[in-house]
User: Fold these one by one.
Assistant:
Number 1:
Amino acid sequence: MKSFFLVLLLTPLFGIAQQNPYFENEVTSITQKYDTIWDSSRETIVFTGSSSIRMWKNISDYFPNHQLLNTGFGGSQTIDLLGYSNELILNYKPKKVFIYEGDNDISAKKKSKEIMNTFKELIEQIKQADSKTKIVIISAKPSIARWNLKGKYKRLNRKLKKICTTDDNLEYANVWDVMLDKRKLKTNLFLSDGLHMNEIGYKLWHGVLKNYID
């Protein structure tokens, strides 16, 4: 019986996300950049997540009427963003956060349930910091390089969409469908690696995400 209660006592400790040291230098570089240009007196929108966000270098040009910070870090998974949520999200006190994660999680063979549990922790952290913050979860995207995993991505997207129905401050932005021509992937949206997008791809994303900015 004592061992049972000890397990209950220690269980929350295992849910605490640790900061992955692999990303430490990149996160430091991001925070140093915005330390010099972020205006804390203005409303802030944060775009964050893995390389599909990080590589959208001209994202601010698409939304010129907003103070927009791009804190994406390449190769990250949802658990990594949870570990660096203070540095990449909360410290900027955003009115809205756009999150793109899950892509690398699926590639790393994580189960949808595990990914969703981490998303829930991340959402709860943001809500605890400010219950009024709006959160937009961007669907996982299809790609040439990971097209063989499309079934798993679609399953994750269904779960992401469902969780966004549980809270008025959560929204789901579907970028999957616009990247397809019926059931076939639009292959002209990608760089030579078949994974990351070119400007054509980002223009399609803008067409979806602009509806969630205001």
Number 2:
Amino acid sequence: MKKYLILLLLASPAYLASAQDYKTPYLTKSLVADNVKTVFVNTSGGSISVKGGEEPRIEVYITGNNNRDLSKDEIKKRLEEDYSLDISVHDGELHATAKQKHNINNWRKSLSIGFRVYVNKATSTNLNTSGGSISIANLTGNQNFETSGGSLSINGVAGLIKGETSGGSISVANSSKDIDLQTSGGSITASNCQGHLKLETSGGSLKLQDLKGYVKAETSGGSVSGNNIDGELIAGTSGGSVNLMAVAGSVNATTSAGSIHVQMTRVDKYVKIDGDSGHIDLQLPGKQGYNLDVRGDRVSMASTGTFEGQKDKEHVVGKVNGGGSSVEVRGDGSVNVSY
């Protein structure tokens, strides 16, 4: 077992940086000889970053409250008095923990302790911070991470990805396989991803770009916009509009308080649209066959191919081009279907 007690190392000048900020690490420890496959990081007041594909090492960044500059002697003193700071490596597992020993009555003496970890690409993570952002990049494996007060950033990650924040935005790009991301207070941006995606926010917008696979994206307090999505898309909001362009596959789009615009370049099994308020615009490929069930306060239907069924002011039910994919639209406002 290789165990590194950082409080013992702090006295060594080889581990001390000349400036205590987030540009220069307070402590750096090589992980080249440890063959780390799993990273566990837990800190109560700083950010966490894990990146694959670089020289294996861990860096510790420490600042005073509100990013106040502190001397290395002052940081060392506060660590010894108020914090438990430990790094250990055993059987390919890296554990890095920073936590308060007791309640600090004077908040001015609190520290922000962050970690940046560089490992091999084939590494899994389990990360937790109550007061900072989390960033992971260029990794494969299982990734689990959570913060109560910061943003999440995921880039170039393949595997099982599960992340949650209670107070920040989420950005995921160039990632794949199984992605589950949630925030209670920010927007979500997803781009150039594929696989099974579940994206959920209670207080922000959703922006989707260049996605492929199964995508479920829901918000309780913002708009949903998407472009160039191939697969099955379920997109819903309770407080905004839905705007989806260049969608190929199947789509289920809903809103309780806004308009819906959907442009399909290919329809597979179904299109289902439900809008409680606002108008609905749906554009379909003209040469396909559909089973239509379109209802609204006022329905406008463009002509294409052959139609068999019933049309009137408030609903259109029937088959286009002999029937085929299911198209179901429900709206309390005007509904416009074009080809």
Number 3:
Amino acid sequence: MTSAGLNVTSVVLAGFLQLSDHRFFFFFVCLVAFVFVLFSDSLVVYLVVSRRSLHRPMYVFVAAVLLNSLTASVTVYPKLLSDLSGGGAVQISHNACVCQAFVVYSLGGSSFMLLAAMAFDRYVSICCPLRYAALVSPSAVAALLLLCWLLPACLVGGAALLASRLPLCHSRLSRLYCDIYSFVRLSCGGGAALLSEVYGLVCSTVTVFLPATFVLFSYGRILTICLHRSRSFSNKALRTCLPHLLVFLNYSLSTSSELLQRRLLTASDADASLLTSVLMIVVPTVLNPVVYGLKVKEIFIQAKKLMRCQTRS
């Protein structure tokens, strides 16, 4: 129990207490999801790295998206499984909560920026094919990848630093992991908390809303081009864009439900908060390798070849 004006040094993740009756079920679901993500993401990344036919920008971006998802899974799932195997609510220190929030938010922002880079690759390939080699060169791809990982890390790092300096007057979060917005809501309020919220909104705009807008613009232009080209060209172009659109919708729906729940629902809506925190962890990480493994023809073919070789040996 805490009261206003008391500086809290730890946070209680009360979502685990709400799962007390279904703890082992969620442990099993998360364990299966984690093992699947480890195997499938690693497989696709290995194929892109080891197969010369996949050494093209589109597949490099696919590998980057899945590597980003794999990194997030490795940093989130093990602690989640450890906490689910215990009993009652989970207590986490002030600094550990901020660090966890930094990892979740920075990698989440990187996901949207990588999808925007992928949309840029598809846009140039379909709408400006003669300039593709110049605009999407290996050096340009490397620069885009660095930007996609470093910019969210720097912006979210600033938000985490601001949040870490806030005195907390409350300690209870109805979630399974920490996020910066919920952490700021535990603070005692005042100008510093308002500054953190405004800065967080700027971070969300730069790392989520602007990349999402660019993705929608790019695929809108691609669709317009396809409507004026031959059926065979349109079918091929749309087939290469479909997996990226599915992954984009996957991230967008999960993130939108998270943002809407946090902004519109009250603190008493604990079940909704818990549900969205579970969906944010499981859904994107599991669906991404399924989409790329099954919908990207070249990756699917290389995966089948690898499996056949392993079976024969």
